[in-house]
Amino acid sequence: MRHAILAATAALVAERGLLNVTMSQIAEQTGIGRATLYKYFGDVEAILRAWHAEQIAHHLAHLTEVRDQAAGPAQRLEAVLEAFAVISHGSHGHFDTDLVALLHRDERVGHAQQQVRHMIRDLLAEAAAAGEVRVDVAPAELAVYCVHALTAAGTLPSKAAVRRLVAVTLAGLRPTI
Questions:
Q1: Fewer beta carbons under 10 A from the terminal one: N or C of the chain?
Q2: pTM given for the model
Q3: How would you write the chain as a 3-class SS string?
């Protein structure tokens, strides 16, 4: 039931905008009574925050899976950067700016961003130890560079453009001679 409520709310907000969705519409879309809906969530904002938390958890799990499937340090780093860029590309432009502002005030977003930076930092440190990325810049700084660069994938028009952005980002990580 909870998942159905989250999915229906996300669809309604995408279709109508954040300020144009009511609990009655969500209940109707989900096929439940309003009283039942209120047993699960107090308002539309609470539903959206729960939906967003679910999305964040899914993205983090995906990045971990991608990391764990790759063979060596450079391959793990590239796989995670590519997956992060694809997530960024797929996550932008689907909702209005009011919703994005609402959801990104949530402390879980900051925590998730920190987890991503730490994952990338650790992969960079591993690849640096193997001589596969530059060592003249600290892995934590390079992780910030990667996250900021690849977040821009959300504004790109195609997956080919996303792949080019990943290639440029990786080029900036190559060891200096």
A1: C
A2: 0.84
A3: CHHHHHHHHHHHHHHHCHHHCCHHHHHHHHCCCHHHHHHHCCCHHHHHHHHHHHHHHHHHHHHHHHHHHCCCHHHHHHHHHHHHHHHHHHHCCCCCHHHHHHHCCCHHHHHHHHHHHHHHHHHHHHHHHCCCCCCCCCHHHHHHHHHHHHHHHHHCCCHHHHHHHHHHHHHCCCCCC
